[in-house]
């Protein structure tokens, strides 16, 4: 009942709003000659619309019948936004005399009803940009809007139900530059549908049902998006014409073979990720055609396919490639040995394959900066492989099974990270690493080192030497370390250290000039924190994680006060608890008071004695000063 009472006034006010007469000028905003009337439950533009309006925003209203009356008999608009109304009728010829109207947004209306009545909208004399997206239009219906649109350059038909593009669909709009047909159900494109559109540079056919592209011949097109279709093969027409295509998106299709691209091309980006590629061949049989050269190709994405290998020769025709993504395939061996290959490549993503062997020849990959190798089966690598990459900065080797060479032994079944002067970032987490030998990273410029999730890792006390000036981030979490014998205090640049989820009983020793800003000690075995170590950090530490440790309440009082008085943030303070013998449950660290830790027995007595002695001393000192003061007063009075 109460509910209904509440609802009723609400409903009444809604009805009132929707039937508001345009005469009572609603709260439109007028900024110079632009009028904003969005979301005001209007059925038409306000009648007292000032003259000479250039831009009218009537989006999100209740317009149903778009006529001269609805637009307050004005013709001078440059920009009309009628998105998200209920338009199902447009007065034929309405836009004929709007010779300044460049932008017309009719998206999210019910224009399928209008088209169903087979009425023509009439000439779109000056319209350059038209949005007809989400109008329930199906095949052929766009004709009623486009038949006479001589100035149209930019058209969106996204989110309709078009199944076929006929050869004459765009016959009335020959200046089109960009067509968006994203999210329709296009199965068929008739020959000649786009060919005569000489100015067409961008075609978005993503999210449709296209199964193949044969004889692709749109040589002026620059961007072609075929993502999220069911394309099985893509063949360009055999011709010697120069194609201007730069971006081809074929991601999320069913391609079995690499697309066959035009011989004369300037393609820069090819995306064939998430397809069914099993090889980089362009057809099933022997390659009939001569090699296509990709002189402009910079970015090639073939991730999420079923590639088992990539022959080195595949890269012969890609001289200027910069980014290669072949992650998430089934590649078990990758090798680049020819020094002329991939001279400009900066990023190679080979993550999540089943790599067991990786080979880089001398003087190959001179520009490679980032190499992603995580999630493979790498156990043995040529121990000097990374020293051969003169520009390498980032190495992602997590989730493999590597061992690190020690400098004394003959390198065998291990990989070396010393003497890679450019190396800044190294992730070796989850590698079943057992031993971290001395000088493991000497002569690198490592800023970040992740050694987490290598339980049982034995770190030599000099394992991090050489990183004193460079290392900023060190991650050692989940390593089952019970005591850290590596001296971290010499790492002068170290700012962030993660020691969470280990078995530490002591915190590492730091010197006063440490620059640690964040320290994670969560989930260890810390009972008593060495106060001098914590004090050394006080001036630099900003963030401290301490939760899930069996801290003792009363032996860390100094530390507690430090947390209270300094600017250290303890984000997990809710879980920082300590053990107190008088309490059965752990006590939250914020609730610990000095009184709780009243020291008992002999200690209490000692303190009492100390306090009494102190009080006596102070009293004596005061007495002495008082006497002296009186004496001075005497003297002063005497001389005065
Ligand atoms: C739309 O409005 C015009 C003029 O106001 C009127 O002639 C026409 O019948 C209306 N059409 C519909 C479908 O309501
Ligand atoms: C459209 O293409 C024609 C040639 O077919 C060219 O003359 C004209 O300048 C182009 N127009 C625009 C706006 O690019
Ligand atoms: C192609 O369309 C998809 C949306 O379906 C979009 O995510 C992607 O960025 C587009 N690709 C290009 C090259 O514009
Ligand atoms: C790819 O083509 C080569 C010949 O160029 C052929 O030997 C090989 O079997 C082909 N691979 C597949 C998977 O079709
Ligand atoms: C492949 O890697 C490149 C470069 O690292 C990246 O830009 C792209 O998004 C990746 N592709 C996918 C599908 O994640
Ligand atoms: C490597 O590729 C995977 C997808 O295949 C992507 O998620 C990841 O972001 C890529 N790495 C980089 C650094 O681009
Ligand atoms: C290292 O790799 C692991 C994945 O195994 C990831 O969780 C972690 O965030 C990476 N470290 C850094 C610093 O990016
Ligand atoms: C680091 O480089 C110096 C000078 O090049 C060299 O003497 C030293 O042996 C190198 N250290 C290691 C561990 O490779
Ligand atoms: C962690 O170290 C303890 C000894 O400190 C050992 O008993 C335990 O097995 C180790 N756990 C793992 C996962 O290595």
From TrEMBL:
SMART domains (UniProt xref): LRR_BAC (SM00364), LRR_SD22 (SM00365), LRR_TYP (SM00369)
Pfam families cross-referenced by the UniProt entry: LRR_1, LRR_8
Domain of life of the source: Eukaryota
Entry keywords, A to Z: Leucine-rich repeat, Membrane, Repeat, Signal, Transmembrane, Transmembrane helix
PROSITE patterns tied to this protein: LRR (PS51450)
SUPFAM superfamilies named in the record: L domain-like
InterPro entries: Leu-rich_rpt (IPR001611), Leu-rich_rpt_typical-subtyp (IPR003591), LRR_dom_sf (IPR032675), LRR_TM_domain-containing (IPR050541)
Transmembrane segments: 605-627
Name recorded for this polypeptide: Leucine rich repeat containing 32
Source species of the chain: Pogonophryne albipinna
């Amino acid at each position: 009942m109460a509910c209904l009472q509440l609802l009723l006034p609400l409903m009444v006010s809604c009805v009132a709003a929707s039937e508001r007469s345009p005469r009572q000028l609603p709260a439109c905003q007028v900024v110079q000659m632009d009028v904003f009337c969005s979301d005001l439950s209007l059925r038409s533009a306000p009648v007292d619309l000032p003259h000479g309006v250039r831009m009218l925003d009537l989006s999100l209203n209740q317009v149903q019948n778009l006529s001269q009356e609805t637009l307050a008999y004005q013709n001078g608009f440059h920009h009309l936004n009628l998105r998200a109304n209920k338009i199902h009728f447009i007065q034929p010829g309405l836009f004929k005399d709007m010779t300044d109207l460049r932008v017309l947004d009719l998206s999210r209306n019910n224009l399928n009803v209008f088209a169903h009545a087979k009425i023509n909208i009439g000439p779109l004399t000056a319209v350059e940009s038209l949005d007809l997206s989400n109008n329930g239009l199906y095949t052929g219906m766009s004709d009623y809007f486009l038949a006479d649109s001589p100035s149209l350059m930019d058209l969106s038909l996204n989110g309709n139900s078009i199944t076929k593009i006929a050869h004459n669909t765009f016959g009335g709009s020959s200046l089109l530059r960009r067509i968006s047909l994203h999210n329709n159900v296009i199965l068929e494109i008739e020959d000649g549908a786009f060919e005569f559109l000489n100015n067409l540079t961008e075609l978005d056919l993503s999210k449709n049902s296209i199964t193949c592209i044969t004889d692709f011949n749109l040589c002026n097109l620059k961007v072609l998006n075929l993502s999220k279709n069911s394309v099985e093969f893509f063949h360009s027409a055999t011709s010697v014409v120069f194609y201007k295509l730069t971006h081809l998106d074929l991601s999320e299709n069913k391609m079995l073979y690499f697309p066959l691209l035009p011989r004369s091309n300037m393609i820069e980006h090819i995306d064939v990720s998430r397809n069914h590629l099993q090889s980089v061949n362009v057809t099933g049989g022997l390659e009939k055609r001569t090699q296509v050269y990709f002189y402009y190709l910079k970015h090639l994405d073939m991730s999420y396919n079923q590639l088992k290998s990539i022959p080195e020769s595949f890269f012969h025709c890609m001289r200027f490639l910069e980014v290669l993504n072949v992650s998430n395939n089934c590649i078990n061996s990758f090798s680049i040995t020819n020094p002329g290959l991939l001279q400009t490549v900066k990023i190679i993503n080979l993550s999540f394959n089943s790599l067991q062997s990786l080979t880089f020849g001398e003087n190959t990959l001179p520009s490679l900066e980032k190499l992603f190798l995580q999630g493979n089966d790498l156990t043995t690598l040529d121990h000097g492989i990374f020293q051969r990459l003169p520009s390498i900065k980032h190495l992602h080797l997590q989730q493999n099974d590597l061992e690190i060479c020690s400098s004394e032994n003959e390198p065998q079944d291990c990989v070396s990270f010393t003497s890679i002067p450019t190396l800044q970032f190294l992730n070796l987490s989850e590698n079943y690493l057992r031993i971290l030998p001395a000088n493991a990273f000497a002569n690198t410029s490592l800023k970040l080192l992740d050694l987490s999730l290598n339980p049982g890792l034995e770190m030599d006390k000099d394992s991090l030497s050489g990183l004193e000036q460079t290392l900023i981030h060190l991650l050692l979490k989940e390593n089952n370390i019970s005591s850290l014998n590596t001296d971290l205090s010499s790492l002068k640049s170290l700012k962030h250290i993660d020691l969470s989820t280990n078995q530490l009983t002591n915190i590492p020793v730091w010197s006063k000039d440490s620059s640690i800003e964040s320290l994670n000690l969560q989930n260890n075995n810390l009972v008593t924190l060495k106060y001098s170590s914590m004090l050394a950090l006080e001036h630099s530490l900003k963030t401290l994680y301490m939760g899930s440790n069996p801290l003792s309440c009363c032996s860390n009082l100094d530390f507690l006060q430090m947390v209270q008085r300094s600017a250290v943030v303890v984000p997990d303070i809710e879980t920082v608890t300590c053990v107190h013998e008088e309490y059965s449950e752990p006590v939250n660290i914020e609730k610990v008071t000095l009184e709780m830790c009243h020291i008992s027995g002999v200690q209490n007595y000692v303190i009492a004695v100390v306090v009494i002695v102190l009080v006596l001393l102070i009293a004596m000192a005061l007495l002495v000063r008082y006497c002296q003061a009186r004496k001075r007063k005497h003297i002063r009075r005497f001389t005065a």
